[in-house]
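hiii so um. not sure if this is the right channel but i have a protein structure encoded as tokens and i wanna go backwards to a sequence. like what aa goes where. can anyone help
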């Protein structure tokens, strides 16, 4: 049973006391429970070994989450109530897509805790929650279309863990995937033309670097696939909790305060999958570095890839793993 299913089976407490929860134990995480408060919000309850760490920690309130340390709660489970102290994470939304996102993060972070976590361990997990959900209140750093295209490249890859490992932590980096001398930049088009905007740096790397452009057609349709559905597809192929947490973090940083609206947008999955093509940077028309004056920077231009022959990325002979695993 998933965390979301476990939560959905809980009855909302008939009270207005914020310290009373109905909950169910998690077999895989005996130190934790899934709960619901009187507002119907999802709650994660974590018990930990007492080590006084919480004394130096502040409770946190953000738009979507509240984190409280060492809270004395009344928890009812299978009709039996018990008062105990927990670290409590409340997710403040009744929106299903957002709740699924919250539970996905919760699962990856709970999986990284030991079977009997110390309070110090729990507080480190709290920091990760704060970082991700604070991003959801900030200005977006990239369009939903660009992020969706990057995710489908990961989802379609031979080994998604390799691509995620080399995926940018900061969505504003020059290359979407950077493995030293191997780099991939993803470009998407909604008008079914392979005409993309590049920066001079992207197509003028140093001699020892090879840049591959992944060109994808992305079209919004009502019965398409959302960002969160791609995320589920990818997460189901991963076993590394840190990599799963990284996906959640990058999505939050990228979409920022547009998350609730943009995660409902759907794109044509089959079109994107079938239109994916790869191109070597050497084959693409560009403004050559030698033609850019010394004091000129951030040069951008459009280049048409329509008549350029695409390549099989797996045949590129390098010492790295990025191209081979894409």
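sure thing!! here u go:
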């Amino acid at each position: 049973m998933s965390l979301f299913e476990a939560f959905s089976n809980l009855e909302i407490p008939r009270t207005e006391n914020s310290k009373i929860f109905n909950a169910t134990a998690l077999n895989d995480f005996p130190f934790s429970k899934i709960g619901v408060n009187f507002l119907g919000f999802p709650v994660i309850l974590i018990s930990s070994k007492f080590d006084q760490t919480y004394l130096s920690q502040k409770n946190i309130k953000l738009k979507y989450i509240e984190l409280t340390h060492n809270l004395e709660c009344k928890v009812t489970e299978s009709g039996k109530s018990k008062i105990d102290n927990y670290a409590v994470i409340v997710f403040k939304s009744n929106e299903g897509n957002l709740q699924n996102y919250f539970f996905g993060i919760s699962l990856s972070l709970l999986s990284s805790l030991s079977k009997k976590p110390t309070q110090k361990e729990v507080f480190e997990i709290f920091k990760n929650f704060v970082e991700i959900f604070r991003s959801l209140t900030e200005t977006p750093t990239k369009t939903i279309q660009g992020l969706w295209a990057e995710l489908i490249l990961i989802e379609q890859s031979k080994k998604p863990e390799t691509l995620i490992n080399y995926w940018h932590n900061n969505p504003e980096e020059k290359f979407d995937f950077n493995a030293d001398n191997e780099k991939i930049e993803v470009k998407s088009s909604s008008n079914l033309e392979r005409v993309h905007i590049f920066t001079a740096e992207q197509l003028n790397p140093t001699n020892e670097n090879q840049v591959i452009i992944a060109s994808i057609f992305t079209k919004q349709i009502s019965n398409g696939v959302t960002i969160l559905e791609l995320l589920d597809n990818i997460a189901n192929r991963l076993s590394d909790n840190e990599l799963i947490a990284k996906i959640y973090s990058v999505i939050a940083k990228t979409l920022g305060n547009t998350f609730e609206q943009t995660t409902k947008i759907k794109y044509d999955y089959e079109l994107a999958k079938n239109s994916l093509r790869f191109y070597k940077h050497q084959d693409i028309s560009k403004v050559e570095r030698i033609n850019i004056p010394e004091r000129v920077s951030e040069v951008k231009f459009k280049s048409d890839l329509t008549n350029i022959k695409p390549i099989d990325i797996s045949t590129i002979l390098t010492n790295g793993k990025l191209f081979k695993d894409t």
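oh and The first helix runs from residue 3 to 8.
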